[in-house]
Prior knowledge:
The complex is a heterodimer. Chain A is α+β, with helices and mostly antiparallel strands. Chain A has helices at residues 12-20, 34-39, 77-82, 84-89, 91-98, 103-108, 111-115, 167-173, 276-282, 289-299, 311-329; strands at residues 5-8, 25-28, 47-50, 59-62, 68-72, 177-182, 185-190, 213-220, 227-233, 244-252, 258-266, 273-274. Among the domains of chain A are: 5-50, Uridine Diphospho-n-acetylenolpyruvylglucosamine Reductase, domain 2, CATH 3.30.43.10; 227-333, Enolase-like, domain 1 (2-Layer Sandwich), CATH 3.30.390.50. Chain A starts with a strand and ends in a 13-residue tail after the last helix. Chain B folds into three domains: 26-35 and 444-586, 2-Layer Sandwich (Aldehyde Oxidoreductase, domain 4); 39-139 and 191-278, Aldehyde Oxidoreductase, domain 4 (2-Layer Sandwich), CATH 3.30.365; 374-441 and 594-738, 2-Layer Sandwich (Aldehyde Oxidoreductase, domain 4), CATH 3.30.365. Chain B is built from 16 helices and 31 strands.
Amino acid sequence: MRSFAYVRAGTVEEAVAAAAADPEAAYLAGGTTQVDLMRDEVFRPARLVDITRLPLRGVERRDDGGGVLVVGALTTMEELAAHGDVTTRLPLVREALLRGASPQLRHMATVGGNLLQRTRCRYYRDPSTACNKRAPGTGCAALDGHHRMHAVLGTSPHCIATHPSDLAVALLALDAAVRVHGPDGERAVPLGEFYRTPGSTPHVENALTHGELITHLEIPLLPPEARSGYLKVRDRASYEFALASVAAALVVDEDGRIRSARLALGGVGTVPWRVPRAEELLRGARPDDDVLRAAAEAALSGAEGRPDNAFKIGLGRRAVVRMLGALARGEEPDGAARGEGR
Amino acid sequence: MTPPTTTPTPPPTPARLGEGIDRVDARVKTAGRAAYPTDTAYPGLAHAVLVQSTIAAGRITALDAAAAEAAPGVLAVISHENVPALREAPDRSASLPPPPLRDDRIHHHGQTVAVVVADSFEQATEAARLVRVTYAADAVVADLDHPDAQHDHDPFGTDGGTGDVEKALEAAPVRVEGTYRTAANTNNPMGPFATVAHWEGDHLTVHDCTQGPSRTRADLAATLGVPPEAVRVLAPYLGGGFGAGLRTWGHTVLAAVAARQVGRPVKLVLTRKQMFTSVGHRPDTKQTVRIGATRDGRITALDHRAWQSLSMTDANMEPVSHTSQSSYASPNIATRDVQVRLNVPAPGSMRAPGDAQGNYALECALDELAHELGMDPLELRLRNYADEHPVTGQQWSCNDLRACYEAGAEMFGWERRDPEPRSTRRGRTLVGYGMAGTSFFFYQADCAARVTVGADGGAVVESSGMDIGTGTYTVMTQLGAELLGLPVGRVRMVMGDSSLPAAPSAGGSGLTAAMGTAVHNASRHLLQSFLDLVRDDAESPLRGVALDGVRAEDGRIVRTDDGRGEAYTAMLARHGRDRLSAEGSAEAPGQKGAVVPTGPYAAKFAEVHVDEDLGVIRVARLVTAAHCGRVLNEKTARSQLVGGTVGGIGMALLEETVTEPHTGRIANPTLGDYLVAVNADIPRLGVRFVGGPDPTNPNGTKGCGELGIPGTPAAIANAVFHATGVRVRRLPIRIEDVL
Lengths: 342, 739
């Protein structure tokens, strides 16, 4: 039988020390992805450091600037979605959370784990196939395989796996950051600098070094006058990953011009995808169709499709136009999909 | 050891036949007391895990089991090199696939190449990973359009028709032609298939996920070379089958082989991934339908050709185009089926096999013809109504499809449909209405049952068949109660045991007719046995009375002439008997003669909403009017229609087993990647039963287990066309198809 060491940490320092001491150690929180990956032999950690007892659960509001939510990394998806400030001030975060997974999973899965969840690429998850992310240097079976769900942005000849998180897309749009505790102390990493596109090292997914632990998320609140939302386009009405998703927030002045715009895409990139150029195009403009389409063009700029997934480029653009237009008009964005399940 | 018997608890109140009483097995199931095969335990139980191939074509050049055999707890590693001789089925079209581990050849990805047996499941799982298999790979042929694939023509002997289709097509003023594709689908019952095998000397007991214990017993006996009497198959409950349990698959055979080899009871549970390669699936199809018609919408020619995938070594009974021989009146009809040999796992029945795919193509083609003619699709169907069998000219035993059309259209509000495609919208949502008819095939096999009334006045009804979740326990309890004049609470149904009177598998929507007839006949025989008991009994008011002069009511047999009678208990007591039993059987009705037994019918009406910009398709409403003959339980019958419709929605919009053409590997063998409909995908589903009893059997029933699927994908596809003006001739229909 395959055996591995299991330790339950009582403090953050204990957890970090235990993980740092063993190069084959991994943290275990909600386990909703990790355990599957171990069963499928994608991960074979020699040591699991259980962090579920650490005091990292709950949401606090800090009132510097426009207000910041400091979210313990072990807060569950459901807990964060239900938080009052998230409901009133961050609809895009709430919607991103509630359109992910299923209620059962959302009650188990932690927000820290959500940001670190692994791609759903079936080649990554099947050790009998070539995958540079799982086994560097073996190749990428998805390139010539079935890749309808795969990325069109941020890809490389080595990997086209899509980043699966909805929450990360919303947080990226908000300029959120993660607080990290590691062997060398604490640091904060803005989400915009956290994820790594695959390049020639698809196995390096983010800025964390071995032993570093996400302890908190810092989520700036939107101004009260902002409108925000998360549009997720998918085949199945619930319990399904995005073909394309859009997190957006707009502040529209009384004269009808956009004062500020935030825009990020999911389901289309190897990492959560934000394009400052698209936001610049919106700023100061009236949200008419031409402007929205120009922003959508910019958002998908550089996208490269393959036979099964090229449709995602146009779909992503349409999703951007729909989401921004709905926010500008104060409407619900997802038409037929709205209210028919999450 | 025999596992605890979990007898269903009937409800306390009497109920009439047809009434939608709760399932008699609901209580044991919801309380977790129903013994599924995976729940079976024996002292000393060992665990088996399969090793499956990672190539799709070629052969095994080396199989190194040394590391696995040396792993902790391992009892045996069985491969083609050391498996005991297994016998081939005499008839490959039968329920028995070729035996597992027969040689070193690999015919599909995920083929079982070894089974590892260990003390624990975890030990067996780990050791299975240590089996090193080396392959010499051949070129893979895994695509229905592959030029090198072998084609088996007319594999079912069902090709045929009437008239001269080519000539009629040429002469037809209006013609439509379309090529339609349906994806492979995987049954995916919630319960993974499992087998527990236990030898006591030369006697084998098997707990199995099967839809037919008698059939599994016969197959196991034939494969293992033991007499059928030496095998007992138990399956009182099944966690879903949808056709996957209609054959005796390799894992069931291997569990028995492993148990004999290690001298201990063995349990083998398939993983979800193995469920995609080991227990069948609905084969993908390519179909061409050509229809010729007059300008007033009379069909003059109907030509339906179908190509479907098949594995290299197996057979699969799945006529696809055959439905076009019996659906619409036309003087010229031709249907042809081809099976294409591929390096894919063996397909098998999946709810409404053949009809699910064939009806989709036919009913979409009808919709295309209606559009071409500028005619209402419902009117077109009524204009070509098959008042008799279009090919044989036989009379239908009972066909109320017309009533289905009328009731369904009325429930749905079909008259509100604007015929123009893309004419109806709500904001950015395109609204489409579509409909389809279904003439489902008839199937019934031989069946036996036994009915016993005991000294307490209660009855036991026994038959080896399976309730695969359809409600057979319940409707047979109701039927027994009705026929014996007892409250439902005094009748106990016992099933799922090959030692009971033999029933056919639960498949082809045929079990209710078969078993219901057997129970009917057994009950009549039992009443006769009671009359025989008191034939010369001076104390009995029933002395010398004939069967046609009595009825059963309130636990008594009563004379119809003067109402005198007596209780079962009184007759038994006076004659010193503790019980009286009788058996009854039912033979499959013949298909020849002036009247042809007919299956169930349905009309389906769907409303879909399509997001104009994003292409998201959702079913907003779907109603079914069904002719299922006499309905024995309104609630369980409705559940069959609703459940089938959910599967039909999945087939239409979500479900696709993706096989990579160049590797033969299934790319999505998980419930996260193979999308089945979830609650949020399903609107309120309306179901209404119409039409009369079918005289083919004494209870008047038709099958309703599969009727929910065929018609549903076509109604949805036709509604998508009506919503968008885009004709998608491929299932599942997805976002990118309508963008």
